[in-house]
């Protein structure tokens, strides 16, 4: 069972038991400890995973954070727990104090369902007020999972995680800003746009008249951008299909699939995005390209037809993907939904590792 499958299984478990959990201690034992075990930590090894870690600060002595993940005798990640029935927003101050009192690089505040990840991006050794990453066990967002996996024991890289944290923080703020502009643009933003396109005075009445126009224009722009991207992809693949360069012989992979699937679909583009998400912590995903035939779509490394990552076979009633083994023979993996591609993340990563 791969990482995504384990998370799905654990999510189902949490859903079943959460209503029976009424205390913080029960939350730790039933939800938090199993979660960090899933991430690969030996929760029973006091050299690696320490309960009730001393984090004295100021005049307050005998202050203890619930858990600390250790490396060479020093805490690197602090974990503060609350009951699964509590909201986390009002409890970050406690973790803030623990963070300042230790050399830890990251802090996690959790109620066993939501996990807020903190670090010190704004000021060294001072925990930021806002988390750079929030993970919800009931919302296995495909964009969040690779970031969560950075904190698994076997892939933990503090420097890489810190660098990613900075990007995640600002990406989150950009998304919030664009959402605000889309749903309720501020007077300042409306006046800025009016200053670029409107010859009259930006009176308050004019601002109120322009606001719904800007909202509609923003939505139309997003829709047009998506449409143009799809059209460009379709044109690009049509040109590539007619170019002299040829794909590897189909018999190297699979028997031919019947049907005409010569136009690239949104489903295939989304599948390509999932593969990039799986490999983003291994390579620069700009090195991934795709080519398309009437039967399948193939993902290539560095545009090299001899370096196939996988193929999507979406032309049949039963969709599946194939990955080449060490002898370049196909391994078939049936899928029901695009999210099932994550079940074969390890196989995809293993293929990619051969080309690095």
Summarize the structure in words.
- It is a single chain.
- The protein is of the alpha+beta class.
- The protein folds into three domains: 3-171, tt1808, chain A; 184-242; 250-353, no CATH class.
- Helices cover 40% and strands 19% of the residues.
- The strands form two sheets. It has a six-stranded mixed sheet. It has a five-stranded antiparallel sheet with strand order 7-8-9-10-11.
- Strand 3, helix 3 (92-100) and strand 4 form a beta-alpha-beta unit.
- The chain is globular and about 65 Å long.
- The two termini are 25 Å apart.
- Mean pLDDT is 85; it is low at 240-251 and 253-261.
Order of helices and strands: HHEEEHEEEHHHHHEEEEEH
- Cα(first) to Cα(last) distance is 25 Å
Rg is 25 Å
The level 1 CATH classification of the largest domain is: Alpha Beta
Number of strands: 11
Mean of the pLDDT scores? 85
| Proportion of residues in extended strands | 15-25%
Largest sheet, spatial ordering of strands: 1-2-3-4-5-6
In the predicted model, the low-confidence regions spanning at least 5 consecutive residues are 240-251, 253-261
Count, helices: 9
The SS-based structural class is alpha+beta
Largest sheet: 6 strands, mixed
Helix content: 40-55%
What CATH calls the topology of the largest domain is tt1808, chain A
Overall 3D form: globular
Tell me which CATH architecture of the largest domain applies here: Alpha-Beta Complex
